[in-house]
């Protein structure tokens, strides 16, 4: 046993854990010490089936050899090169490889280190783009209720999760929100995208009328909202948003941090829905979650609008010390190689019908009030315990972990998003764990 396993609860206090009930966790820690393909191993030696691809990021599965080798090689060859006014070959190679798989017209990539940074980068690009085009009054940003766009100030301002916003003051000014599209009374137990609710896109017209299009820079939405419990776009909704944005000269940003890199069975949600945004934010699956990395894709027109003025001048005053870090780039190239060799960016398409049937077989199990699915994403919504919201789903999470499956819960919703290498047998296993858990909790 390595020294790392010999932790006692007293050793746990220094680390202030993110998005965690710290005191509860430290009384009964849940620790992973290794992982391979579809499984984690816990500190007490149990195998746990990964039903969530880590946090929606380990799309190719764990400890994949191409990725590990690429990182090891790069760490020994060029560990770091300054990101500003200097380059190194593989960051250019990676940008080209990403553009090759991106929706048509998204010809340029800006690197960040996370989804949150990708979002704040995209929002800044949108505002600056209008300014360089001589429309400096276009500064407003429109998000959506129940949207999650990371935790930086831009992202929480356009985001729509109350608990992520209320503690942090006045946030960005000039932000408005469209309504979310979760309509369980009409759409419960829909298979795939729901029938009702496309007209909610017209709320954008109302907001445009209120503020005037000439003040609005961009609209940002998750094509499928992940972290707030899997909220799908009603049929035709994204197309409508696209039309309204185009009509008013407003940039449309798709936040594809979760939906990017094969999650829906197509490389990006933009491909899946046949709707191309102007800017697309990604992270997570770009490097299989192994080394932090994010990538913002932009249309040629947006990039080119900045490429004016004296050539010795910096065109966009923005960037991170670790933008395009060589080891992150190596991890991403290893990831793209793995996706390509195994057809993972489209594997979800073949598996989706099986996944859908398996998930919907949970209809009628205790507490289940809705089931939603798309690609290799699933959500099982539970009735909350009266007076104790989130408690039932959290018990399900702990029980599932004890039984040998990692699931994710948000509110009283169980969200599932396994690595794209999952087999049909493992889908059955995962769903059976969830079924047993539902039958065993109060
Ligand atoms: N945008 C979207 C759409 C996301 O889902 C972010 C931005 C932020 O990415 P970073 O890399 O800064 O975390 C996300 C992240 C969950 C969960 O369980 C979801 C996310 C992160 C952690 C947990 O739903 N999404
Ligand atoms: N804070 C200080 C004091 C810095 O010097 C820097 C970068 O040089 C930053 C923050 C930003 O760090 P990063 O580029 O890693 O986002």
Helical region count? 16
Question: What is the 3D form?
Answer: globular
User: What value does the average pLDDT take?
Assistant: 96
Distance between the termini: 37 Å
Question: Can you offer a commentary on this structure?
Answer:
The strands form 3 sheets. The chain has a 7-stranded mixed sheet, sandwiched between helices. Strands 1-2-3-13 form a 4-stranded mixed sheet. A 4-stranded antiparallel sheet has the order 11-12-15-14, covered by helices on one side. It is globular. The chain has 16 helices and 15 strands. The protein starts with 21 loop residues before the first helix and ends with a helix. The protein is of the alpha/beta class. α15 packs across α16. It has helices at 22-27, 53-56, 65-77, 89-101, 115-132, 153-158, 162-165, 184-187, 203-211, 237-248, 269-273, 300-306, 326-342, 344-360, 391-403, 424-440, and strands at residues 32-36, 39-42, 47-50, 106-112, 140-144, 175-178, 216-221, 251-255, 279-282, 294-299, 368-374, 377-382, 405-406, 408-410, 413-416. β14 and β15 (413-416) form a beta hairpin. Bound molecules: 3-[O-phosphonopyridoxyl]--amino-benzoic acid and pyridoxal-5'-phosphate. 3-[O-phosphonopyridoxyl]--amino-benzoic acid is lined by residues 55-56, 114-116, 119, 148-150, 222, 226-227, 255, 257-258, 283, 408, 410.
